[in-house]
Structures are given as structure tokens and as C-alpha cells.
Write a structure and sequence with these properties.
Layout: H1 5-20, E1 25-30, E2 32-38, H2 45-49, E3 54-56, E4 61-62, E5 67-76, E6 86-90, E7 104-108, E8 114-118, E9 124-128, E10 136-145, E11 169-170, E12 174-179, H3 181-199, H4 205-220, H5 226-242, E13 251-256, H6 268-288, E14 294-296, H7 299-308, H8 310-322, E15 325-327, H9 342-360, E16 366-368, H10 379-385, E17 390-392, E18 408-412, E19 418-422, H11 435-444, E20 453-458, H12 469-477, E21 486-489, H13 492-502, E22 508-510, H14 526-552, H15 560-572, H16 585-614, E23 619-624, E24 637-639, E25 650-654, E26 657-661, E27 665-669, E28 675-680, E29 685-686, E30 696-701, E31 721-722, E32 728-734, E33 738-747, E34 750-759, E35 765-773, E36 778-786, E37 792-797, E38 800-805, H17 811-815, E39 819-820, E40 824-829, E41 832-838, E42 843-850, E43 856-866, E44 878-888, H18 892-903, E45 907-911, E46 920-922, E47 927-934, E48 942-948, E49 954-960, E50 964-970, E51 982-983, E52 990-995, E53 1000-1007
Parallel strand pairs: 13-20, 13-21, 14-15, 16-17, 17-19, 18-22
Antiparallel strand pairs: 1-12, 2-3, 2-5, 4-11, 5-10, 6-9, 6-12, 7-8, 7-10, 18-19, 23-24, 23-45, 25-26, 26-27, 27-28, 28-29, 30-31, 30-36, 32-33, 33-34, 34-35, 35-44, 36-43, 37-38, 37-40, 39-42, 40-41, 41-44, 42-43, 46-49, 47-48, 48-53, 49-52, 50-51, 50-53
Helix pairs in contact: 1-3, 1-4, 3-4, 3-5, 3-12, 4-5, 6-7, 6-8, 7-8, 9-15, 14-15, 14-16, 15-16
């Protein structure tokens, strides 16, 4: 037989595109269009409905960037359409090649009820099925003219302060049409079979069977009467559509989904509308398709529609009760996990899961994080302590270098906790359930021969409108179809339960899930990152002192509502495109303003509590919120600080520079203002590598191959400029308590002033850096070349630390050329090490080199500032103050201590003569108190969260300074753990604790009053 395969396939493509698909909508009758352009920000629905509209027409331009235009469309269904299915087609000017990231609309009835959204692949509104004929049509459309910002070019359209006023869109057709159901079904048949056919091998008989059936169907279609011949054509396809799948076919659990970034190329306020639109689409689709299941994460997004669109929320709540709309994720937002602090990560689960339980009575079991930029090794323990069972991610498929070896596996965290994890082989969280994607999932699946199931989230995200009726039609046809995986629409929990039962001995991946991409997100938008870190620290203080005052001071009320509201604000801004710095200028401008308000509120809460604790008097009390004693002030307490008892700081001028010393460290700053020596006096050990200089600022060119704000490519290291030119070097303070040296430099269009401070009794050199940054596509780092032979670095992460190689033995090691650390990074050889600590920096790199003298130089660098131009062309421009410190001779536990101290500075308040005793004390520094607060249920119980910070087993005695009835171990939601013991303190009020390495322990203390 002659090979006519390509001819038939080409025929199918053309006939579908040019004749059959257009025939789904017949007999168009134009609607009458009117419009009203809302001034400024979006208006309430009632205002849009009551506005004065003006005549409009298809083809008119509308919508400046970030504007809102209301359309009123009216018409009448022709009498002759009685009994037919009638729809309105409303095209706002969609780009059909880009589902999402453009204009969107939400349709309302005259009474203000939201009907459904309008999106590129969802531009219809059902009018009647069947129609009565003669009925009037009146619809309102709230249309948002969001600019298209996905082209990865510098643009000022990303902020209302700089965007243009020219219209961005031109309306398309707005018609009443007859929906030809059999033609639509024929389209679905042909699309499913056509896409399946081209994925099968050319020698596969099934491919040819489908080809011949398609050919017969195309022969059966009369192109002049498609509606009249569609049923006949479908009959030719019935046989191949009925042929069942192979018994061993891969099984795909299809889960409806619409990944909606809580902010990215649009501001937070637009996300509120995106969520309302998508949820309206979803519940409308559920009404027509009872088999449809949709999973939605991010409690914040549901909280938004509860607040702003209660009528949409009511529909969602009903569908949740019906089991079709499934909350997943258990977190307040799909947060970044690299940079979020430990306690903040715990609160993501606390507030997220609490919302789902309070509003819907649902305990979410799946942690749903498909799009975050890598996953902390602390996550498995947090997942388990949140009461969740399973973890899902997708983003690791984006890694540049190494292919992740598993799709279903047990993920083991730094403490040894394991969580059952799935990484969908479909390699997208916006699947269309097309044949190409289903075939890719089956081919790509790495667990063949041991397991047979994977999950595919389907639906257009980020304003695309979510799943469509076409996707559900594909799922129905692919449920049991020869040549295809078996596709079943079902809940994520159903997939995970089956997958775990099938594959209980799945392989284990230990440690972080490092994304070999988007490494620049550790540094971009420094002020957003600083706002996050400072807010986390301020929340710790506000809770600690408020809890202490509530227990100690009669009548002092714990600010439950304010703290919960502020926590949720901070958690929202940890979303994986806000904290990483990859959103538009508008988002980060608002974030800076929000963090300033948060700081002011938390300062006020803290001062109010401390004032109540200090009482009346004229003596200075020093409050220490860190988890370690400082200057004889206990952790979590306050005391008057007596005269200095440590050796004084001395300063000697030396060769145009200065030598400063305090009995613990001797630091040499040369005439260039560089630290050429940091000598550990007790260990008689030099920290700075021979011939090198520490605190060396370095500039790299920074133009990655793609994803400007997201990516730093390894080749940025090929060129570097050391900033050694000096504007001024000055000793600005010299007392017995401290010495401060100021170093000023200028380069290109920027200036930097650093203040190097050595304090009495401190074994760290503090460095405060003020940068007025006006660079473009540059990367600023601070280098500390250390005389240490270290094959690995330790970097703080949530509730512990992770080790990473300093060498590049493998491609996995080499790919980690830029890494994330929280408050500190540490390198050591047996017997001696050093740490670099910081108050708001996350990006780092650690490299090693062997010198001619045989020694090894391990260089730790902090990534301070970047200057990418997309999506915010003014990223990081302006003034910054960054604080970091070098700690020669530091152990890991010294790094932990110094990291807390630089992030939690002392506060001095005038008050009574008596000190403020801590609510509780722990007698082992490696057992770190992470949080002290009152219980969320407002019972007055005290919640204490601790963790083992050194990476070894630890025992400690916990003592309380208030009467305790019972002490119970709880999960992150402050519920007793299953089979948790209820401890009764010893007669002296203490409790003996034993923790495994990096264990998190949450204790609920019921007060004895």
C-alpha cells in the first residue's frame, strides 16, 4: 500500500482548523455593545453596573495599561433558535497563542451575580440550553487591560507610575451564536485521535488504524453542511475510540488546576480579580460536569474572594462541600522555600491549614508547591509536623544541568523525616491533556517496572481561566483508549493513596531539592528580602515580649488579632515571585511600603509590651530577644548592664591603615581599606588567606541567557573587577568599648561607605555597608578569602543547616555555584573554622583553591546587589544598608549565636530597677528557642518552639518562670501529636528534653495561674 500518511495528517489539520472548528458556532447575530471606562483603580461591581455607558463597536481600541473597561452587551435570541443551544461569544481582543498574561474579563448578570470569566480559550457564555427563542440578553463584562509583560524585555509598563496611557487592546467579535454540539464533539474526537496518532510509532498498527478511521470521517463530512454530517463522521470514529487501553498502560490522575501566582507580572489587587474569575469559571464548569475535580492551593487566595467577592466564595464553598472543589497545599501561599525563615515556614502551615479547617472543615494532606524555585531540606519535617502526608512539586524539571532521577520517591530532610513525594512526569503544571503531553508523561516516567501512576495538573493558569470543557472532553476519551495512558479525573488524595500503596518502597532522596536555575532570586530586590528578614525578626520580638507581658503583667492583653493579621501579610509577601524578587516594579514598590507599615506596627507592639514589663523607674534595661545570653542579659529577658569587664579596644595606626584589637581579635585594615588580617588571638590563627584581602567588594557583569531577575549564570565569574580604589579611610570612633573605621569608595555611577566595627568582648568584625547603587546588569559581591581547608560549607536553613561541597567533583556539585544561606555560612577544618553572618543577605558562593604553599584558600562571598532590567527595569536602584560580620574561630554553634545576635539587636528601655526574667530558660545552647507566643485558640497557654541547631543529639533542661499544669508536645497547629505524652514538670518546675539532630519540638504549656 502506498504511504499517504502525511497527506491524511495534513488534511486533518487543515479541515479541522479552517472548516470544522469554525462550524461549532453557527448563525452569528451581532450583540449591541456599550462601554464605560472606569477611572483609576477597579470600582465595586455596583458602580460598574450603574455607570453611564456609551455606544461601542467591534474593532474599537480599549484599555490603557492596568485600566478597567466595563462592557454592556445586549441582544435578543431569534425565535427560530427555539430549542437550540445558544451562547454569547465575547472576544475582548485575545491573543489565542497566549492563554493568560493579557486582558481578562468577568461576566455579570444585571443583579451583580458573577457568571464566568472570559479568557482566550474560554470566550463564551451559555444563554440557553435549550433556548426559548425571543428572550432578551443583557450581560455586563468587567474587563481588565493588563499589559502583556511576558516577552522578557525591559519595560516600564510594570507600574502604574510609569506605564503608558495608550489603548492596548481591540475588541473582537461579540455575537449570539448557535452552539452546534455534534460539531463540537466531532472536533474533540478528531483532536484526541489526531494528537494520539502522531505520538505513536510509524510502524505501530494502531497509528494506521486511527489514520484510516480519520480518513473515513473526513470523507463523511460535507464541508458545505458540517453540522448536518457531523454525526455521520463521528460514527466512523466510534470504533477506534472504543478500543481499550493496554492493561499495562501508564495511569494518569488528571487534577483540574489553575496555577495563579499571587503576584508576578501583575499586582496583588489584580490577583484578587484573577482568582474571582477563575473560581467563577470552575464552579460553572462543575455545574455541567459532575465528574470534574479541581484542586486549589493558597489559603490567601480563598481568603481574598471571601473578603472581596463573597458571592463567588459561597459558590466555591458549596462545591467544596460537594467534593468537587478540593483545597490542597496547606500553606498560606505557595511560598518560596529557600529564603523563608523557619518560624515563618511553620506559620505558612499554621495559618494555611487553619483557614481550610475553619472555613471548610478540611484537613489538607497534600503540600502543593509546583512552581517554587527549589525546596529546602527542612521541608519534610515541616510537612509531617503540619499533619500533612504528601508533597508535590514540578519545578525541578526546569533544572539546567542534571535530570532528577525520580518521579515518585521518599524525600528525606535534614533531621531524617521522610515524606512521600511526587514530581509529575508531564513536566508542566498547566497541562491541556493533549496527546503530546500524555505521551510525554508516559515516556518520561522514571518508575517504570516498579510503579505505574503519575499525576497531571490540567488547566490554564495565571489568568488563563483554568480547565476548559475541551480538556474534560479529552479526559473522557482518554479514560481507556488504546495507545494512550489511562486518564482519570480524580482528587490528588486519591492519586497519592494509590501511588503510595503501589510503591511503598520508593527510592529515597536525601537533602534539598536544589533547582539548577533561578539562582539570582537569592539576591534580586534586596529591599524586599531585607523587609522579609527584618519582619520575621520583629515578629519574634513582638510575640516574645507580648507573651511575657501577658503572663507577667495583670491586664496586659496579648494582641492576637494584630499579630495574626501581620503574620498573614508577611506570609503573603513570601510568595515565590515576591520574596525572590521576580515580580514587576509595582509589586516591589508596594512591598517596600507594606514592610515599612509592618515595622511601625511591630515596633509599637514590642515597645508597649516592654514598657509594661519595665515598669516605672529611671534605670536602663537592656532587652535581649535572641535565644542566647548576651552581655549577661539572659535570652528572652531584660536586665541592667553593668560596667564593661572585657579588655578595651585598642587602635594603632599602621602603614596608612589601622590595627584594631580587643583581646580576642586583632584586625588589620590596610591603606586601601581592605581587611588583610583577622587574627584569632586565643587560637593563634590567622583567618585571612596569605596575600589576600577580606571584605573585598567585587563587581561582575550580570547578563544571563534568560530570566533576568531570576537567573545568574556561571559565566558571570569569568570577569570580575575588584573595588580597591579608595575615596576616604578614616577612624571615626575610638573608645574602650569600640573602634569604627569608615571606608568610602566610588565606582561607575555608585558609591559605597563601609563602617568596620570591633567591639569590646566581641569575636566578630561587624561591617555595615551603605551602597548608593546605580548600576545596570551588574552583580555586587563581598569576598572573604579564608585560610581554611574546607571541602564543604554549612549554610543555615530553616531549623538547622545544610552542607554543600566547595569542590566541583560532579555536575551536581558544579551546578550549585550560587547557594542560599539564612543568617550565617560556616567553613571549617578540624579544630578551627570561621563564619560570615548577615542581617538580610541570602545569596552566597563558596569556592576553594590550593595555593603554591600547599595551603587551601576557601573563599566565602556574599551576593549583595544585582541590577537586572526585567521585569523591573529599576531593580535595586538607590540606597541600601546591609550588615554582615566576619567571625574568625567560630564553631557552628558560634555561627548560630552570632547569626541571631546580628538579626536581633538589643533594645534599651528606661524602667524599674528589677530585671525581667525570661518566661523560660534552656540550659543547652544547641537547643534553640525559635518562638515564644500564646496559643492561637486564645486559651492563654504558652507555646514554645525549639530545635536542635548543631546537627547532633542534645539534652537540655527546660525551666519555666511561671506555674505550669501540663506540658504537651504538639504539631505546628498546636494540636497534640498522635500518641503524644503529656509531661508533668519535676518538683523544681523543670523538664528534661532530648532532641535528635535538627529536631523541631513544639510544646504547649498550660499555665497553673
Amino acid at each position: 500500500m502506498h504511504d499517504d500518511r502525511s497527506i491524511v495528517e495534513h488534511r486533518l489539520r487543515r479541515v479541522l482548523r479552517e472548516r470544522i472548528q469554525p462550524a461549532v458556532r453557527s448563525s452569528p447575530v451581532p450583540l449591541t455593545i456599550e462601554r464605560w471606562d472606569a477611572p483609576g483603580e477597579p470600582v465595586p461591581v455596583a458602580d460598574g453596573l450603574s455607570a453611564v455607558y456609551e455606544p461601542a463597536a467591534p474593532g474599537q481600541t480599549w484599555g490603557p495599561a492596568w485600566g478597567t473597561t466595563w462592557f454592556r452587551v445586549t441582544g435578543r435570541v431569534p425565535q427560530e433558535w427555539r430549542g437550540r443551544t445558544v451562547e454569547a461569544v465575547v472576544d475582548l481582543g485575545f491573543d489565542r497563542q497566549m492563554p493568560g498574561f493579557q486582558c481578562e474579563g468577568l461576566v455579570y448578570r444585571p443583579d451583580g451575580e458573577a457568571v464566568k470569566a472570559l479568557n482566550p480559550f474560554n470566550d463564551w457564555v451559555r444563554i440557553g440550553d435549550p433556548a426559548d427563542g425571543g428572550e432578551d440578553v443583557l450581560l455586563y463584562v468587567e474587563a481588565s487591560s493588563n499589559p502583556v509583560l511576558v516577552e522578557h524585555r525591559p519595560t516600564y509598563e510594570g507600574d502604574t507610575l510609569t506605564s503608558g496611557s495608550e489603548p492596548l487592546y481591540r475588541t473582537g467579535r461579540m455575537d449570539l451564536v448557535v452552539f452546534e454540539a455534534q460539531v463540537w464533539e466531532l472536533v474533540q474526537d478528531l483532536e484526541v485521535l489526531g494528537s494520539l496518532m502522531t505520538e505513536l510509532a510509524e510502524g505501530d498498527a494502531r497509528r494506521w488504524n486511527i489514520l484510516r478511521a480519520v480518513e473515513r470521517a473526513l470523507d463523511a463530512v460535507d464541508l458545505t453542511d458540517i453540522a448536518g454530517t457531523a454525526t455521520r463522521a463521528r460514527a466512523e470514529l466510534a470504533g477506534v475510540l472504543a478500543s481499550p487501553a493496554n492493561a499495562s498502560a501508564h495511569r494518569i490522575s488528571a487534577v483540574g488546576h489553575a496555577h495563579i501566582d499571587s503576584a508576578w507580572l501583575w499586582p496583588l489587587r489584580e490577583t484578587v480579580r484573577k482568582v474571582a474569575r477563575t473560581c467563577s469559571n470552575v464552579v460553572a464548569l462543575m455545574d455541567d460536569h459532575p465528574e470534574f475535580v479541581f484542586a486549589m492551593s493558597q489559603a490567601q487566595q480563598l481568603a481574598w474572594i471571601k473578603e472581596h467577592r463573597p458571592e463567588v466564595f459561597a459558590k466555591v464553598k458549596k462545591k467544596i462541600a460537594d467534593g468537587q472543589f478540593v483545597p490542597v497545599g496547606g500553606m498560606w501561599v505557595e511560598s518560596d522555600t529557600n529564603m523563608v525563615g523557619g518560624e515563618a515556614m511553620a506559620r505558612q502551615f499554621l495559618y494555611g491549614k487553619k483557614f481550610f479547617m475553619d472555613e471548610f472543615g478540611i484537613e489538607t494532606n497534600e503540600v502543593w508547591l509546583p512552581d517554587s524555585f527549589g525546596y529546602t531540606a527542612a521541608m519534610p519535617q515541616l510537612v509531617k509536623l503540619s499533619g500533612s502526608k504528601w508533597f508535590l512539586t514540578q519545578k525541578i524539571s526546569w533544572s539546567q544541568v542534571n535530570t532528577f532521577p525520580h518521579h515518585t520517591f521518599w524525600w528525606e530532610g535534614i533531621d531524617g523525616t521522610r515524606v512521600f513525594t511526587h514530581f509529575p512526569p508531564v513536566d508542566t503544571y498547566n497541562s491541556d491533556l493533549g496527546g503530546a503531553q500524555m505521551a510525554h508523561a508516559a515516556r518520561n516516567y522514571r518508575e517504570k517496572g516498579r510503579a505505574s501512576r503519575s499525576l497531571a495538573p490540567f488547566g490554564w493558569g495565571d489568568g488563563g481561566g483554568g480547565p476548559t470543557r475541551e480538556m474534560l472532553a479529552r479526559a473522557r476519551r482518554l479514560r481507556n483508549l488504546e495507545g494512550s495512558p489511562k486518564v482519570t479525573v480524580e482528587k490528588p488524595s486519591a492519586f497519592f493513596a494509590k501511588a503510595q500503596a503501589e510503591y511503598p518502597d520508593a527510592p529515597v532522596w536525601a537533602g534539598e531539592l536544589y533547582l539548577e536555575l533561578h539562582r539570582g532570586t537569592y539576591t534580586s530586590q534586596a529591599k524586599t528580602k531585607q523587609g522579609n528578614r527584618h519582619s520575621e525578626s520583629l515578629l519574634r520580638e513582638a510575640e516574645l515580649w507580648s507573651a511575657t507581658a501577658a503572663v507577667r503583667v495583670p491586664g496586659h492583653a496579648y494582641p492576637y488579632d494584630d499579630l495574626a493579621r501581620i503574620w498573614k501579610t508577611v506570609l503573603l509577601h513570601q510568595f515565590h515571585d515576591i520574596l525572590p524578587g521576580s515580580s514587576i516594579a509595582w509589586v516591589h514598590r508596594e512591598a517596600r511600603e507594606t514592610y515599612a507599615r509592618v515595622r511601625a506596627e511591630l515596633e509599637a507592639i514590642t515597645v508597649a509590651a516592654q514598657t509594661a514589663l519595665a515598669g516605672d523607674g529611671s534605670r536602663d534595661l537592656v532587652f535581649n530577644a535572641s535565644p542566647h545570653e548576651r552581655r549577661s542579659v539572659p535570652a528572652g529577658g531584660a536586665a541592667a548592664v553593668g560596667p564593661r569587664t572585657t579588655p578595651p579596644v585598642t587602635v594603632v595606626s599602621h602603614s596608612g591603615g589601622y590595627e584594631i584589637a580587643n583581646g580576642l581579635l586583632r584586625v588589620m585594615v590596610d591603606a586601601r581599606g581592605l581587611v588583610v588580617s583577622a587574627y584569632d588571638i586565643e587560637a593563634q590563627r590567622e583567618a585571612v588567606a596569605p596575600g589576600r584581602a577580606a571584605n573585598l567588594l567585587q563587581i561582575h557583569p550580570d547578563f544571563p541567557n534568560a530570566w533576568d531577575a531570576w537567573d545568574v549564570d556561571e559565566f558571570h565569574r569569568h570577569n570580575v573587577t575588584d573595588l580597591v580604589e579608595l575615596d576616604a579611610l578614616e577612624l571615626v570612633e575610638s573608645t574602650e568599648d569600640r573602634a569604627v573605621i569608615a571606608v568610602s569608595r566610588s565606582f561607575s555611577g555608585s558609591t559605597v561607605v563601609q563602617r568596620l566595627t570591633l567591639r569590646s568582648g566581641a569575636k566578630v568584625l561587624d561591617i555595615e555597608t551603605d551602597v548608593d547603587w546605580h548600576e545596570t546588569e551588574k552583580f555586587l559581591k563581598a569576598a572573604f578569602p579564608l585560610d581554611v581547608k574546607a571541602d564543604r560549607s554549612a549554610a543555615e536553613t530553616q531549623f538547622g543547616h545544610v552542607f554543600r561541597a566547595t569542590h566541583t567533583n560532579t555536575s551536581w556539585d558544579a551546578a550549585k555555584f550560587e547557594i542560599c544561606a539564612h543568617r550565617w555560612i560556616h567553613v571549617e577544618e578540624p579544630g578551627w573554622g570561621a563564619a560570615v553572618v548577615n542581617d538580610s543577605t541570602y545569596g552566597h558562593d563558596v569556592t576553594r583553591a590550593v595555593r603554591e604553599d600547599g595551603g587551601q584558600t576557601t573563599t566565602v562571598r556574599l551576593s549583595l546587589l544585582r541590577a537586572p532590567r526585567y521585569p523591573d527595569p529599576a531593580t535595586d536602584q538607590g540606597a541600601h544598608r546591609l550588615r554582615f560580620a566576619l567571625a574568625p574561630g567560630a564553631t557552628v554553634m558560634d555561627a548560630v549565636r552570632e547569626g541571631h545576635w546580628i538579626n536581633l539587636p538589643e533594645r534599651t528601655l528606661t524602667g524599674g530597677a528589677r530585671p525581667v526574667a525570661p518566661l523560660l530558660t534552656v540550659d543547652n545552647d544547641s537547643v534553640v528557642v525559635e518562638a515564644v507566643k500564646l496559643a492561637e485558640d486564645r486559651s492563654g497557654d504558652v507555646i514554645v518552639r525549639l530545635y536542635e541547631a548543631g546537627g547532633g543529639r542534645a539534652t537540655a533542661k527546660l525551666a519555666t518562670a511561671f506555674p505550669v499544669k501540663t506540658l504537651t508536645e504538639t504539631d505546628l497547629l498546636e494540636r497534640p501529636l498522635p500518641d503524644a505524652a503529656v509531661y508533668e514538670p519535676a518538683s523544681d518546675g523543670t523538664l528534661r528534653l532530648t532532641l535528635r539532630p535538627f529536631q523541631i519540638l513544639t510544646l504547649r504549656l498550660t499555665r497553673g495561674f
